Amino acid sequence: MQLGFLVDLHLCMGCKGCEIACKVENEVPLSTWRLRVKYVDVGMFPETKRTFTPLRCNHCENAPCERICPVSALHYLENGIVNIDKERCIGCAGCVMACPYGAIYIDPETQTADKCTYCAHRIASSMMPACVVACPVEANIFGDLEDPTSNISQYIQDNQGDVQVRKPEKGTDPHHFYVGGGNLQLNPLASKRVEGYSLFNKLTTKMPLGGHH
Amino acid sequence: MVHETLAATHAVVTLDVGLPGIVWPWKVTMNMWAKSIGTGIIFMLFYLLKRYPKESGNLRFSSTVVALVFIHMFLLFTLADLHQPLRMWHIFFYPHWTSAITVGAWMATLFVVMLFGMAYFSFVKKDNAKFDKLMFWTVILGIPVTLYTAALMSEATARELWQMPTESAQMMLAALLAGSASMILLGKKLSYEAKSSLGVILGLSALTAFILYQSELIFGPMKSEEVIAVLAYVKGNGEYATMFWIGQFVAYVLPMLLVALSRSGRSESILKLAAILALVGLWVVKHVWLIIPQLLPMS
Amino acid sequence: MYLESRRSFMKGAAFTVAGAAIAKGVFTTDAVAESISDSKFTNTPDSLSFYPPVEEWDSFKELDGTDWKRGGIERHGVRSEDNPDGIQVNDYTIVPTVCSNCEAGCGLTAWVNKDTMTVRKYMGNPVHTGSRGRNCAKGYAVTSQMYDPDRIPFPIKRAPGSKRGDGQWVRVTWDEAMSAIGKKMHDTLKVGDEISKKSIMYHVGRPNENGFGPRVPQSLGIDGYNSHTNICSAGAREGTIQWANDDRNSPDWANANLIFLQSSHAADAGHYFQQSAGYIADARRRGAKMVVIDPRMSNSAGMADLWIPCWPGTEAALYLYLVNRIVHEKGKNEEDLVDHSFVKEWVNWDRLMANKDYLQKMIGYGYISEMPKDDSYESFIELMKELYAPYTKEFVVRECKLEGMEYKLDELWDLFVPAGSKIASYLWRAGAIGHRGGWMNTRAGFLPLALRGAMRGDIGGVGMHHWHEISVAGKGDKATVAGEHPKKTDVWNELAWPPEYPISTYEMGFMLPQLIMDEEWIAKWTKRGLKIPNKLAVYVPRMHNPLWINPDGFRWVEALKREDKFELSFNLSPTWSETNWYCDYVLPVGLAGERNDQQSTPSKPEQRIEFRQAVLRVAAEKAGWKAKNPARATLEAHMKFGLGEVWEESEFWPNLIVEYVDPDGSLGIRKYWASKKDPSRAVTVPEYFDEALSLLPKLKAEANKLYQGEEFPVYSYIRDHGAWTEKTDVYKPQEEDIKFDKEHVYAHGHKYPLAEVEKDEFGALWVKDGELKKSIGIVKDGKILAGFHTLSKKLEFFSEWLADDWKWPEYAVPFYPRNDREAEKMVHLVTQVHHKFMRHDNEFALNTIYRLPYNIHTRSVNSKHLMEISQNHNPIWIYTKDAEKLGIKRGDAVKVQIEDTLTGIKSGYFIAMAVPTEATRPGVLACSHHAGRWKLKDSVEIPGFEHDLGIMSLGAPKYEMTNDGKVGTMKPTGAIVPHHVWQFKEYNKDLDNIWWDGLSGAWQNAVAPCHPDPIAGNHGWHQKVTIEKASADDKIGDIKVDYENNFKVYQGWRDQLTRPLAPGDKWRRPYHIKRPVKPSQKAYKVEIKDV
Ligand SMILES: Nc1nc2c(c(=O)[nH]1)N[C@H]1C(S)=C(S)[C@@H](COP(=O)(O)OP(=O)(O)OC[C@H]3O[C@@H](n4cnc5c(=O)[nH]c(N)nc54)[C@H](O)[C@@H]3O)O[C@H]1N2
Ligand SMILES: Nc1nc2c(c(=O)[nH]1)N[C@H]1C(S)=C(S)[C@@H](COP(=O)(O)OP(=O)(O)OC[C@H]3O[C@@H](n4cnc5c(=O)[nH]c(N)nc54)[C@H](O)[C@@H]3O)O[C@H]1N2
Ligand code: SF4
Ligand code: SF4
Ligand code: SF4
Ligand code: SF4
Ligand code: SF4
Ligand SMILES: [Mo]
């Protein structure tokens, strides 16, 4: 069993339901995120468009975070999930440096690394991840990549040619796919990220890491 | 590449969450810097004992102590950088061998044990033969201890800048630079020849390191768009451009010139100045290189 | 079987995860492994469900997400007696309820941890067929609202001796509060005269329930219901009423080919937001296209196939352009584009053609040049051709200011026509509320849809709201001693329904302070014979923050402080708000998961109800807990299980009335709220709602089957399921037969003797209704069809009542001024922010209307999760090139000065942050209204209580306010400092990570003058503004308002634009159109004296 995720970016409308569902489900403390939805405005008036991209851990099959972790706090479950153990973690932040997707953070409450676990506790309870349940437009598809009849496998088959992962060149082999998107959404360098105030929020890369650094 | 198309697509992030800033801060710079001195000085001791056995014999103890001090500084900052320093022992009880951190920690620990052994032989036992034997193995271990940081940095898959073999060379060069500089300062009683040969090592490692950095600046951008974007922080009006050039001059260019100058004037004080500048500059260089890839948004 | 039942539970509830079961891994036989194999938990499950089946809701076990962070069951196993270190298993009671953060009323389930009796999380409710188990960010944030550390824990009262607004409070018990309030109400009602029946006002914001609230004032015999609709959606309602005598439309998003939005339903807000968005996504997945008309690039516009950034308030011109093309052009196969079969049958063209007087008038107005040749349908089409010919492409480009965007009109046409009759739209706020004449936007907007047959209410098209809604919450009458519904009152309250606005939709709630403080106005109408109260004995805002969300906030401050105008006021609010600050009592009633009421949201063509309930009470009752006083069960449960003295309307009002307002029944009110079962006490929630919901026959049958033998089977059903769908696929009910036989016609639950039914020349059937007549059906091909809700039983292209009886004949057909001369004369249809008023580079239209998908007016302020993603949520959006011209850069503070274009009067300014963007059109700024919340103190001390009560400390900065009756100012003086957490500590451990300062928005509503549209009565939200860079001492958040000036603007709009009731008028308002709480016909009658 290899669990995987797919987001249909054609459908995602940026409501952030998934984001908050995740926060509540996993008690993700303020200032940190297992999942976030990024808005990118593209083009010039009157041909402007807005894109929405949910970003979470990709549960890479060849995960640099798992490789760099000195104590196996990050580890694979047999279902393919890259799981994390806060009691084992020494807080070296190696994984934060290693993950090419910025998916890991240091939890300010526990001072240990944390990230999306594909809601492994829900999976183990035979339940869908919280963010999948939340999505009003069913943009999130979840299931077993090894089972050709699973919903996600079929979705991938039905959208062949339009299935992408983030940063394939890193060789991480993500178990997280996107359909209906492009470079603009998936490549962080393809959009400008101005420090300070943006249309909807105060965007700053000066956030404290894990609170007390 | 995307950077050129940015102007055309006019793509702007209009909503995102606040993102964490620098993950590995100055403590990690301290770590790398101290380690360069700690291992480098042992390399230099080894060299001096081979080339100038007589005059350098009394450096055995003092060099070992300096190495121990800096290696401990390295360990201390490593520990200080952990968010859970009290769990450091996990590395020994739950080691994960694919991790350069694990391997490095084990090696560094062994390195420290061996340094203590050396100290023991030179101070308690006053047995130079045993000392030299042990030092040989320590020097051998010193090489991977020096290099593992490069391995660690390249395991930081996210940071394209560090994904280059040059990083290993730079680690080695940093050790040589820092080792020779420290030895120049430490080996007051050394002959001018010995010092000047240390000066040559200093000058050459500075030159090589400088060339490597400059070629990365010029050729790095051919590697990937991420490297272009990262190097933009040290180019032109980049946020870290000034600091970068200060580092390059203070760590490399000035020491090179000063070494040359000291040779023509046989001036020890100029050599000392070169050594001091190299040590200070190395910190700056390492720091800039540590920070800039962390400024780039990852997602 | 276990898997089976889950799989069949709901569509796609369980996707197979693994084709073949995978070996469970090789464990050694240690305690960890055993703890797993002994449990139902495994890392490789056979299937994954969205929700557990309803049968398991009373006890569902799930691993804890927080405890899992220790590494999960692989490292620690599952917690059990033998394995105490295992990962924690939560035993949940899953109690359904309904989200109340917007009016969508999506299903929620509270996952109540049985051990701690706390709600661990809210998720969706899959039984709710509208929301389908899904929720938006605001739905999931209910947890953070529930455990808001600054929640009001018990009733508080203004400290004796202090003034309103001093911020001195003391703690009172519910009974103390009820006793004082009850006495005041009793004494007022005892007088029994006309004025007394207008002296208690219940003022709701978005009530999110279907009928309970209105039953309260009605049972008191007063005309005292007031609402917020005229700042929300009056324009849209007005237009829809004229078309269909329905409150609003109800699209079938999921089956449409074209999603036609002048709203933000696809991705931002809009009524029934996430449900609509879900159905729109279903349509888009099928290939449907989407058009969005919006001066600002909303999220919906940003993802649409076509974004048309019309100049705000000019959309009617665009719609009539479509009409012009539809009536003149042919389709691909030379077919007519008008759906004649629909229009001919279901549009009231026949009445227009027969009304020669009116046709003559049309010639007079220059709408048509000559009388139609005859009364035929064909001649009507010819009339249409002439009437709409002037709305050419050139005209639209000029009027809507679409220069350079002509191609977008072609693209629109190319999307519009192929969609056929499957076009779904929901005309709601946007242009309809923002402007003078905004209602014409809806009037014109439905015309192209009607012509294409999309208004038939068929699959993929647009239906009507009341077809898809069930309102029974006000009808639990049988559970009460009275056993019947309270009677309609005979009085008419001018403070909600002033004589200047006889057809407003609806109450003029947003100008209550203007009305009540305008002695001159009161005197004027008193002279003309009306009895207008000059004060209120009791004022009760509920789910409403009128002071902040309405225009001219300082006028509200001024008014609410006046103890001679509002003798006693109490706010029914669970949380702090600006309005609280100026009330006598704040009575904490429940949030979403703490209320008991029925709601029904017409989010798709079906009829469904949802039931909101106090989840802790229900969970406790399921665990065997019993209230001492069943009529106060919710209050008792909330106190017992740690939420505080939080009560709820459904129990509060019955108790208040039965025990304190009319304890002896002498006022004749008690009987409406005393329990039939035990007349000594108030009616209980199960008693009341069992009766109310029993009015749904299918629900009743199902419940009686499932809960046989129970005392309250219907209540039990809804308690356990939370929602019920009474009818699906409700399409074209106007075409349904009405039963009749030789003696009777059976319509709308009544039986009309045939002899009393009169058929008119157009086939409509009429019966007597008091002194008036009403239509009950329409004859077609020998059948009686239900028809639309209008008098003509058809869609009314021609609003005959508006023309003949209600003084606006020139606007009785969809129309938009075609030239400057008309624009001058028809000022009522021209927006106050028309581009003709913008003469300089620094003059703009300010769009003050739009929502963020993750904010809710003033409800989100202390939800830590919503606040965190809403920083800088109301900057001033300014088009990049406009900003460039003015030298304004990102982050600059700008001074935004408001000026009225009718009177030329200036209001004052607010300081906001500018963000240049490509996402708003040239000449139009945008500024949402979520930020700029304020408080005057960080916390209040309650004598005798050990903790200070924090005030909105997670989202509202502290401000300094000055106001002298003429000029008001606000200045932020602090940033966000979370108050010391003393309640719900466990939930708020992370508050020290708050990183936002909340200093990025201004209270713009306070600067805006109140300017009501003369017809619909809506406050035209948009403002003409002048902007400049702020000076060094201006801080973002500052405002300065000349509210004396604002009063003059209000008077100007009222006196220059309206056509008030006048001598000779007999009725206050057309009797056939809606009034949320309708008084008797007697109250409707009026006589205006000539003075
Ligand atoms: N997230 C969220 N959802 C909500 C609510 C909430 O508070 N938050 N509130 C609920 C309530 S009470 C309501 S009434 C609905 C309202 O929902 P909608 O009817 O969708 O109304 P708004 O969001 O106010 O405005 C919709 C769009 O109209 C645009 N607009 C403004 N002025 C004009 C104009 O003159 N012409 C045109 N063509 N467009 C214009 C705005 O830019 C905005 O994008 O939302 C409901 N849903
Ligand atoms: N500038 C500008 N202003 C606007 C709008 C706009 O688009 N632009 N939109 C307008 C519209 S459409 C509307 S509908 C209004 C909304 O205006 P309101 O209905 O007044 O606002 P809300 O913030 O929804 O709720 C008001 C108060 O209800 C209380 N409350 C919250 N939850 C509950 C509950 O569960 N029970 C009870 N009893 N009380 C509760 C809180 O005190 C809250 O402050 O705002 C209007 N104001
Ligand atoms: S996305 Fe990052 S955190 Fe997740 S598995 Fe891959 S490398 Fe690790
Ligand atoms: S921070 Fe924790 S999880 Fe990340 S690499 Fe270090 S020990 Fe592993
Ligand atoms: S799968 Fe779970 S942990 Fe991961 S983003 Fe979704 S809700 Fe968060
Ligand atoms: S819940 Fe769905 S639509 Fe909303 S932001 Fe997340 S993925 Fe997008
Ligand atoms: S759409 Fe409205 S009712 Fe539905 S979950 Fe969101 S806020 Fe709640
Ligand atoms: Mo509203």
Describe the structure.
The complex is a heterotrimer of chains A (213), B (299) and C (1091). In chain A, strand 6 and strand 7 (112-114) form a beta hairpin. Chain A has 7 helices and 12 strands. Helices cover 20% and strands 23% of the residues of chain A. The mean pLDDT of chain A is 94. Chain B has 299 residues and is an all-alpha fold. Helices cover 75% and strands 1% of the residues of chain B. Chain B is built from 12 helices and 1 strand, in the order αβααααααααααα. In chain B, helix 2 crosses helix 8 and helix 6 (100-124) runs antiparallel to helix 7. Helix content of chain C is 28%, strand content 17%. Chain C contains 37 helices and 40 strands. In chain C, strands 30, 31, 32, 33, 34, 37, 38, 39 and 40 form a 9-stranded mixed beta sheet that branches. Chain C has a 7-stranded mixed beta sheet with strand order 8-7-19-18-17-9-10, with helices on both faces. In chain C, strands 3-4-5-6 form a 4-stranded antiparallel beta sheet. The relative contact order of chain C is 0.13. Chains in contact: A-B, A-C, B-C. Strand 2 (35-42) of chain A pairs antiparallel with strand 1 (12-15) of chain B, so a sheet runs across the interface. The structure holds ligand MGD (2 copies), iron/sulfur cluster (SF4) (5 copies) and molybdenum atom.
